[in-house]
Write a sequence for this structure.
């Protein structure tokens, strides 16, 4: 599909399930010419609970899921309208919206990755073409359907010394290794990100997360529990590999104090990252961290200690770690319009470079 419009909007609601990020970029699907406005629209507690329940329930009521999908899509439409009002760009200048949707099931070993979100409804409400359903074409081609952001990374790191690693600590953590050759990429999920820690803190206190890592910094990690988690087959499995938010549980933390439980879960995340680095083709020169986990000062400190390398927030590269995933899906949507690859054999395990996404015209 040819388009002369240079702007794309990206929407991302991740495994933290706390809201939708929306971002505007100017791109041709190969380079990123400019990054524009971005914002986050938080979900209500009711909507968060409903999304969380949908992801947890083994037997989901179909009517309830369709109702949830509509409510979530309307929230995304609200995010687009708010972004347009905030920016100087009109909807007529926007070629496409990249609509990731909300993952409620990710099981690539069963050839399943389910993101709810109605592309028809979003196109109707915004008056802009929508690309959604990014992951299933990848899975159809033998991939895991994740992670998809590494292709966007290439547009951000052209002048940065390599090899390097970009680590996204969301609900699930994933890493992208980038070598000196642009085609030298390896990407995969490393293990739990902030999901287990967030759930534990929420159960104990009602707070949504461990602010600044204060709780985890005050506790002592239980080495036996950490070793038990790290003994699971996933951590030794060679990439490509990916996880669902529910692949790991809190069942191994009975009777722990708030601080010790938080420290233990944070340690599992960083130990998993350190283990992941063993799969890199060459040692990296530095790590760049994106996602909500970069605000956890205790986790960042432990990463630096374990990796024995510079560990930076992604912002040192001039990127915005809060907007990056939404920007990535704007970029991927533009690539989808042009039939360009969204994933590679070394990023998701596909049999060949493949494009993806389904187009819903306004």
């Amino acid at each position: 599909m040819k388009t002369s419009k240079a702007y794309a909007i990206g929407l991302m609601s991740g495994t933290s399930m706390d809201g939708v990020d929306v971002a505007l970029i100017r791109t041709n699907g190969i380079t990123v010419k400019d990054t524009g406005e971005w914002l986050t629209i938080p979900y209500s507690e009711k909507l968060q609970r409903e999304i969380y329940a949908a992801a947890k329930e083994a037997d989901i009521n179909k009517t309830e899921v369709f109702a949830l999908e509509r409510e979530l899509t309307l929230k995304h439409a609200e995010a687009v309208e708010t972004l347009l009002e905030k920016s100087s760009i009109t909807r007529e200048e926007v070629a496409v919206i990249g609509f990731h949707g909300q993952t409620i099931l990710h099981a690539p070993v069963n050839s399943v990755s389910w993101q709810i979100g109605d592309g028809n409804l979003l196109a109707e409400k915004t008056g802009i073409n929508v690309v959604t359903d990014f992951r299933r074409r990848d899975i159809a081609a033998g991939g895991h359907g994740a992670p998809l952001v590494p292709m966007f990374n290439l547009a951000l790191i052209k002048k940065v010394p390599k090899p390097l690693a970009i680590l996204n600590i969301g609900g699930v953590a994933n890493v992208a290794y980038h070598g000196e050759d642009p085609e030298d990429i390896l990407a995969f999920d490393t293990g739990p990100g902030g999901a287990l820690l967030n759930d534990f803190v929420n159960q104990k206190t009602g707070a949504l997360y461990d602010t600044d890592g204060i709780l985890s910094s005050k506790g002592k990690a239980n080495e036996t529990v950490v070793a038990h988690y790290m003994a699971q087959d996933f951590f030794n499995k060679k990439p490509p590999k990916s996880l669902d938010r529910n692949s790991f549980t809190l069942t191994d933390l009975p009777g722990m104090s708030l601080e010790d439980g938080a420290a233990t879960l944070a340690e599992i995340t960083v130990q998993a990252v350190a283990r992941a680095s063993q799969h890199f083709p060459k040692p990296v020169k530095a790590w760049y961290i994106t996602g909500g986990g970069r605000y956890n000062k205790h986790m960042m400190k432990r990463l630096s200690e374990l990796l024995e390398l510079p560990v930076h927030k992604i912002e040192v590269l001039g990127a915005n770690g809060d907007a990056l995933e939404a920007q990535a899906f704007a970029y991927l949507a533009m690539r989808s319009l042009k039939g360009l690859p969204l994933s590679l054999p070394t990023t998701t395990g596909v049999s060949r470079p493949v494009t993806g996404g389904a187009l819903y015209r306004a």
Observations:
- The radius of gyration is 19 Å.
- The chain has two domains: 7-143+325-342+353-360, 150-317.
